[in-house]
Amino acid sequence: MSPDTPLQDPSASELELLSFYVGDHEYSVDIMSVREISGWTRTTSLPHSPPFVRGVINLRGTVLPVLDLALRLGLEANEPHERNVVVVVDLDGRTLGLRVDAVSDILSIPASAMQQPPEISADSAGSFLRALTIVDERMVRILDLEAVMPSNDEVAA
Amino acid sequence: MSDPMQEIRASFFVECEELLENLFDAIQEMTEDPANKDTINIAFRAVHSIKGGAGAFQLDDLVAFAHQFETAMDMVRSDALEAGDTLVALFFRCGDMLSDLVRMSREGEDIDPDLYAPLIAELAECAGISLEEEEAEVDPADFQPMTLDLDLGADVDADFSFEDADFDAELAAILNDPPAAEIASDAPSGGGLSVHFAPKQSIFENGNEPLFLLRNLSDLSLCDIQLSFTPSQSFEQALDAPGLAWTLQLLDGDDEIAAREVFEFVDGLCELTIERTSPQTAPEPMASEADTQLIEVEAPKSSTPKPTSLPDPAPEDVPTAEVEPPSKPEPPAKEPKPASAKQSAPSATVRVDLDRIDRLVNLVGELVINQAMLSQSVLQAGLPKNTNISTGLDEFMQLTRDIQESVMMIRAQPVKSLFQRMSRIVREASAAVDKKVRLVTDGENTEIDKTVIERLADPLTHMIRNAVDHGLETSDQRLASGKSAEGVVRLTAAHRSGRVIIEISDDGSGINRPKVREIAVSKGLIHKDSKLTDSEIENLLFMPGFSTATEISNLSGRGVGMDVVKSAITALGGRISISSTDGKGTVFSISLPLTLAVLDGMVISVAGETLVVPLNAIAETLTLQPEIIERLGPETTVISVRDEFVPLFDLGVELGYRKPKPSYEGAIALLVVQEDGARSALVVDDIEDQRQVVIKGLQDSYGSVPGVAAATILGDGQIALILDAADLLGQATGRSRDLSTLEKAG
Fold first, then answer.
1. Are B525 and B540 in contact (CB under 8 A)?
2. Of the given ranges (A112-121, B93-102, B287-296, B644-653), which has the lowest mean pLDDT?
3. Residues of B in contact with A96 (CB under 8 A)
4. Which of A43, A58, B124, B608 is least enclosed by beta carbons within 10 angstroms?
5. Class assignment of domain B598-730?
6. For B176-209, how does the pLDDT look when each residue is reduced to its tens digit (9 = 90+)?
7. What fold, for B165-297?
8. Torsion angle defined by CA atoms of residues B612, B614, B620 and B624, in that order, rounded to the nearest 10 degrees
9. Domain extent at residue A118
10. Confidence class of residue B335 from pLDDT cuts 50, 70 and 90?
11. φ, ψ for residue B264 (rounded to 5)?
12. Rounded CA gap, A100 and A83, in Å?
């Protein structure tokens, strides 16, 4: 599917998503930004880093920072489990690992089925979402990776 | 512009750098040995090649300037001008201008002709009256193809001219080469050399070009060339021997070996006789006069078939009217190597994209890590020491280390280019402050990592300027104190115990310590009652915002001083120190790691995390005995090391990994020394290993982490952080007691 494909092409308006569980909640990201999925290994913690930065791991010779997605989204964190996975995402040349509890599914969602998340300002969770959709009567949240990726100001302690 | 053109253009500019380097080398040599003709020839050739290349890319300004520069140099070559001090100084400035123009051309900047006009005027002035003649004298590249008029008899169509105009022109250039004429005048009387050279057809099949051979000979004491053409008797014969033969007269019989070397590559492809001629028979030099060329053409028999066009049933009596240019049909697949014995041959080099080298360096880094992981798993498997696997692994380890070292060497470059830039800085700086300064360099071939060299340029420039501006006295002051009027700045590089030491020294008056102290006090950098040792006072120079020049010159003293230099050096993993002797001068010494890619470190553990501390930061390790631990404040501790109190820092606390321990008795501490000599004790849980680690940047993937310089991957595949001791201690709290009621912010 080339990005130049006209919009009226029905296949173009479909978005492929990788969905995963963070705690009991189902989240997803655009599959095109996922580089790989790796098993959980012990991280090396970085001093003076914000709590949601788990640390860095060795991904075949490169130093990969790993965020705890639950903490990043302000959800309750559970202790890392060996069956957790790291979703390695690529955004504008920056590579980042996201610790999630488990990968669930690959979904094809038509663009028309996407809903704007309602604006509720009580917590910051909404700002990390790009859209909401319903799959098999479950709500699936689509993450805005740019918002998830910490800015340099946030990282600098 | 199309892509291939861009590539050629890029390679032209790369060549320019090399040529400029040669140029400066040659000019530098001219200062030492003005009589040496080789050096001026090298300089001339460098400028000429730049001009030639620039012409191809329509870089008109570059061509215009290079032409004038070259013209002046040509006059020196032909002894019309003497290479005195003023002229060499002018050449230096012209060289600087040429590098500027090359740089501006490369970056596509608009060049204002006014920029180089003054220098052209100066060149013209130096050249003086003789310039007008000079203008008339065309340089070799502009030579018009010379037609060789041949008197072949009335019945023969004398349309005998080379089609290859370049060849012609070059040949003429060789003959007109001024050195030849000028060497002729002071030729040794030991007898000349006669070289007879008749190429066979096979010489062309192999892609050799006689012109290059002749040109190489022209570097020797060539004084005369005669071309003879013998028409072949039959077609078969014509195929084997083109019938062209050159007889070259060399003035110096001692060039025989060199002359033979020239023909080394065409051995067997030509008839070659080289014999010495007695002094009496040495021919009169008759170069530079084109019409004295003698081309002996025997009148061909009318029955001779045309050597090149058998199928053509042309009138039989047309004799060899078309002479194939000797080299035209065969592309010069392999050029004969220049074999001039006079110059040291440059070592063969390959230009490689830096990205590719970086990739190789990275991959080898992976290999080293992988090998470490493999060793560790073999160890964990509990295999006995003397099995094949263990010994094989040992060899593998040795090999990977060798590979790693070799790859690191690829990135290493001699500091020569850097030093050459500095000689320019000295010239400009000394002109700006009107002092006579000579730069002496040593150890130019010392190799360091390319990145280090690039990042050294700015700090070195600063220090050289400082040395010229502040370090050296004025000529009058120097004479008054019994020194020569000319100041000397020395720039040396050397390898010493796995590091590179670069020293910048001057023979000036040394650092005026009372004055430095006074300024430091007046600027509030130190208290006026503080007692400082000599070296402490010298180190005040590295403090931010320090400038000792009473008058702010336009050269230095802008307030960005030695502190910037120091931080730049520190960023490279280097150290800088200063020492000064009253009246004798000042020495700045920079110590740098050989490469930025690996580092010797101590692997330690603290609070369950493994970390690497750069070895160069650690002075010693010690176990804390109860009697040396002293409480300082409610939260802080000092230890006494040989009667000196050193602050104690708990690494685990400073990194935010844990709370202070209840007691530090028996704990292991690293005594860390910072650039300014300040010492601190850093408590760790355990020292695990001491080894070389491959540096992996954190900047790109995560951003900078306070107290952490980079990361590395250990043998077990885990990532370990490499500590930046200076940064860590700079913002350390020093908490070594847990007073949870006194929570400290930050």
1. yes
2. B287-296
3. 701
4. B608
5. mainly beta
6. 544 444 444 444 445 677 777 777 777 777 777 7
7. Alpha-Beta Plaits (3.30.70)
8. -30
9. 12-155
10. very low
11. -55, -40
12. 10
